[in-house]
Design brief:
The protein is an alpha/beta fold and about 375 residues long. The protein is about 60% helix and about 5% strand. The termini are far apart.
Length: about 375
């Protein structure tokens, strides 16, 4: 009361002095359905813990009337009993997966949700083709944990306009953030978690995305060198650094992979880490490529390109590769550099272990950059085994 009186006095004094106050802009409202105008019944089906709890809380917060089930079978029991407007259905379910559950929702004689809008839920690392899921009848795809703006946009799309907040600024805010979250979720980046790591500062987050792409090639080369050179301490330290970069952008699955590599290094198991390095690189490059696409940039990928390289079908053992490398090193010792490069190119058409191919790709990339010293260093490490 006293505070309001003080503000009134200040306004009167300013008016006498001819000082006009600028009208205050109304605050942007929260997104919430007006249940007096329309009700939105939502069914969530997933068997995984905290992400499902968070999604239920988000659904409740925006004004949906939300029910949760944990299996496809339980889902069918729900849809035979009650009618729902929107269903969020995990693909990875025990006993009966999401695709079969959707088929049963549509075809069961007792289903009350044959015409319900159904969205697929995927884990953050799931690279399932979204087009294939829409062909199966899903209205769209969301990755867990679901970004709140993406969820709000779905609800906005399927609830009558009169039940929604009538503030174009709010709807634009939701749309802008949802566009960003949608692009990033396709490569395993959780926008919510990235923004949280950057204290909800969009500008700082954008800078972290740029740094993640900028530093990829250098970090990849450095970690490969430590790993193949059996430098456990340097490798462990390097992986931790890259893990932090991944954490700052919200690349949840990639963070877990890097944690696995740190644990392997602690156990002095670089041989095991080396054996899973290609899988890690592919996951890393999926994130890098997706972020680069969002930033409208290009980036040099190694492991992704390897999957499409044609071979002659003849498999070389690691021992065979080392023998061929020894011959190439002799050519380099004799300063027959051209013959050595031709020999490396011939080796690349053979099938070999993934780890050995990665090492030879590193050699080939060094040669392309004109760095024969780096190429020779890797070749000598291969020869030593």
């Amino acid at each position: 009361m006293l505070e309001n009186l003080k503000e009134d006095v200040i306004r009167k004094i300013n008016h006498i002095r001819g000082i006009e106050e600028e009208p205050e802009e109304e605050p942007i409202p929260e997104f919430k359905i007006d249940q007096n105008e329309a009700k939105c019944y939502v069914l969530l089906i997933d068997h995984k813990g905290q992400d499902l709890i968070d999604l239920k809380q988000l659904s409740d917060r925006v004004g949906c009337l939300t029910t949760v089930s944990h299996t496809g079978i339980a889902c069918m029991e729900r849809v035979q009993k009650d009618k729902y407007n929107i269903i969020f259905l995990a693909i990875d379910l025990p006993l009966m997966d999401g695709i079969q559950t959707l088929h049963n929702i549509r075809t069961s004689k007792t289903s009350k949700c044959k015409d319900a809008i159904v969205y697929a839920l995927l884990s953050s690392d799931d690279a399932t083709d979204e087009f294939e899921l829409t062909r199966e009848g899903f209205a769209g795809v969301l990755h867990m944990p679901v970004d709140e703006a993406l969820f709000m946009r779905v609800i906005q799309k399927h609830v009558v306009a009169r039940a929604l907040p009538q503030d174009p600024r709010l709807l634009k805010q939701i749309d802008d953030r949802a566009d960003m979250a949608e692009k990033l979720q396709r490569c395993g980046v959780v926008l919510n978690e990235g923004l949280k790591a950057c204290k909800d500062d969009p500008e700082e987050y954008y800078q972290k995305l740029e740094a993640f792409v900028d530093q990829y090639e250098e970090n990849r080369g450095r970690l490969s060198q430590y790993l193949f050179g059996k430098d456990t301490n340097a490798y462990m330290s390097g992986v931790r650094e890259v893990r932090e970069l991944a954490k700052l952008i919200g690349a949840r699955y990639l963070v877990d992979l890097f944690d696995d590599h740190v644990n392997m290094s602690k156990d002095d198991s670089l041989d095991v880490a080396e054996g899973t390095w290609l899988k890690t690189l592919l996951a890393w490059e999926r994130v890098v490529s997706g972020v680069a696409d969002y930033l409208e940039r290009t980036v040099d990928l190694v492991a992704t390109g390897m999957e499409f390289e044609a071979t002659n079908g003849i498999k070389l053992s690691d021992k065979d590769v080392r023998a061929m490398v020894s011959d190439i090193l002799k050519l380099l010792d004799e300063e027959e550099e051209i013959d050595a490069v031709v020999g490396i190119q011939r080796m690349m058409v053979y099938e070999m272990s993934e780890t050995m191919r990665l090492k030879l790709v590193k050699v080939s990339r060094s040669i392309d950059k004109g760095d024969m010293e780096a190429a020779e260093e890797v070749l000598r490490a291969i020869e030593k085994g």
